[in-house]
Amino acid sequence: MIIPIKTIDGIRADFPILNEKVYGKSWVYFDNAASGQKPKAVIQAITEYYEHTHSNVHRGVHYMSQRATDKFEHARKRVAQFLNAAETHEIIWTTGATEGINLVAATYGRKFLKAGDEILISGMEHHANIVPWQMLCEEKGCILKVIPMLDNGTLDMQAFDSLLSEKTRFVSVAYVSNALGTINPVKEIIQKAHALRIPVLLDGAQASCHFLVDVQELDCDFYVFSGHKVFGPTGIGVLYGKSELLDIMPPYKGGGEMIETVTFEKTTYAGLPFKFEAGTPDIANAVGLGAGIDYLEEIGWDFIQKQEDLLFQYAMEEIKKLKEVILYGTAPEKVSVISFLIDGVHPYDVGTILDKMGIAVRTGHHCTQPLMARLGIPGTVRASFAFYNTKEEIDRLIEGLKKAIKMLR
Ligand code: 7TS
Question: The whole model's pTM is what?
Fold first, then answer.
C-alpha cells in the first residue's frame, strides 16, 4: 500500500491558486495538460532566490554571483537526477519543450541531414514537434514522413515498421499525446530506430508530469520537457541529449556564456552544457524548477500515479454513462486525459458553459490540427487531471456536462 505523506487536503493547501473562486464558485482546474499549477515550494524558491541570492551566474568572483551559480547548477543537477541522465552536462536549459525541439532541428538537423533524408514523426504530434521539422525540410530538402494513427488513438506500429528505412535519418515522437493522452510505445520505437543507427528525440512535454522518465533506460538520444507542465515555472525547460551527440552539434544561438575565446577572426565555443546557453539564463526559474522536482519527489510518484489513476477511472466510468458523449482516444495505455465531444455540439459551447460553472477545460484543436483532421473533427473538449484534483471536482464536471447536454442538444 502507498501511504501518502499528505492528505489530498494537505496537498491542495500547497497550491494557493486552487482556492480561487471563479464566478463566485470554487474553481475546478482540469486544464493541467496545458500547464500545471505551482506549489508554494516553487513560488517561495523563486522569491527566496530574488530576495537573498540574485546576481548573474558564471561571472565575477563576488560572493552572490557564486551563490547564484551554485543554486543554478544545483537545479541542473536535480534535473539530471530526475531524468537519470548519465552526466549533468547533458542537461541544457531551454525556454520549454518547443525550444528544445527547435534547437535539435536547427543544430543536429542542419548539420547532419541533407536533401532526400527522411524525418519520421507521428500523426499525433503537437505542432511543436511538426513545424520545426517542416522548416528544416524546406531549408534542406528533407522529407517528412508520418506514422499514422489507428482509430483508437494508438500508433500504427506496422506502418512504423514499413516507414522506418535506411532513408530515415531522424525520428521525433511524443512520448504521450497531449490531445488524447495515449502513451506511445517509445521503447520499441527507439530500439527499432537504433537498429538502423537512427537517433530518436522524445517529446516528453506530457510525460514528465505523469510518471518518472529514465532517459538511460529508454536509451533516447534527446528528450525535451517544459518546466511549467511539471508544476514548475513558465519560461524554463530542458533539453537532454547524449553527450556524444551534443558534442558534435554546432551551437544554437551565439553570444556570451557559450564561448571559450572570441577574436574578430574566430570564436571558439564553450563545452557542454554552456555551448547551447547563450546569454544570461533564466536563473530564477531554473531554481524554481529544481524546487518543483523536489516537491514532486516529496509527494512521491507512486502516490501521484495512484491518485491520477483513481480520478481517471472514476471520470471514465461517469462520462461513459452520458450517451451523448463521444470519446476520442481510447488507447489501453493512457495518462489522465479525457478528450471528448457532445454529439452535434461545438466544443467551444461546451467549454463556455463549463467555464460559467467555474470549471476550466481546454477546447479546440490542442495544437494538433493534423490529428483533428485525421479524426474528422474541428477539436475536442479536453479534461486533464493532476494529483491535486478530486472526485468531487469530477462530479462537478459531470453535472456541468449534463447541463450542457440539456441546453445545447
Ligand atoms: N509537446 C507537447 C506534447 C505538448 O503537449 C506541448 C504543449 C508542447 C510540446 C509545447 O510545450 P511548450 O511548453 O513549449 O509550449 N501542449 C499544450 C497543450 O496541450 N495545451 O496547451 C499547451
Answer: 0.98
- CATH 3.40.640.10 in the chain is located at 44-297
Span from the CA of 126 to the centroid of ligand 1 (angstroms): 7
Report how far ligand 1's centroid is from the alpha carbon of 268 (Å): 34
Residue 261: count of CB within 10 angstroms of its CB: 9
Q: What is the mean pLDDT of the chain?
A: 97
Q: Which CA distances in Å does 212 have to 208, 235, 237, 269, 314?
A: 6, 22, 16, 33, 23
Strands 337-342 and 380-384: antiparallel
Q: Start-end ranges of CATH 3.90.1150.10 in the chain? A: 8-30+300-408
CATH architecture of 44-297: 3-Layer(aba) Sandwich (3.40)
Q: What homologous superfamily is domain 8-30+300-408 in, according to CATH?
A: Aspartate Aminotransferase, domain 1 (3.90.1150.10)
406 to 353, 377, 402: CA distances (angstroms)? 11, 22, 6
Residue type (1 letter), 66: Q
- 317-336 in b/e burial notation, b at 16+ Cβ within 10 A? ebbeebebbebbbbbeebbb
C-alpha cell at 149: 494513427
**Ligand 1 within 6 A of CB of 97:** yes
Closest of 323, 385, 328 to residue 359, by C-alpha: 385
Q: Cα(354)–Cα(284) distance, rounded to whole angstroms?
A: 35
Ligand 1: distance of its center to the CA of 24 in Å?
30
Query: Pocket of ligand 1, candidates 31, 130, 178: which has the most ligand atoms within 8 Å of its Cβ, to mutate?
Result: 178
The rounded percent of the chain whose pLDDT value lies above 70 is 99
Distance CA 240, CA 84 (A): 10
Residue pLDDT, tens place only, 386-397: 999 999 999 999
What percent of the chain is modeled with pLDDT above 90? 98
Query: 209 an active-site residue?
Result: no
